[in-house]
Amino acid sequence: MMITLGPYASFIVMSYAAAALVVMILIGWVMLDYRSQTARLRELDRSGVTRRSGRSATDRS
Length: 61
Prior knowledge:
The chain is mainly α. It contains one helix and no strands. 0% of the residues are buried.
């Protein structure tokens, strides 16, 4: 079964390609930011910085 996209095939294919590219860039950006934030948290932990509230993130009041 062959799908025909008609006279707008190039526009449709390029739109999907552009959307996929944007999604991939966003995924990469999130991955890099995660690494950066994890490194920063490790650095803060090593320097002895603690939470001001003194509670863990899972505590509920």
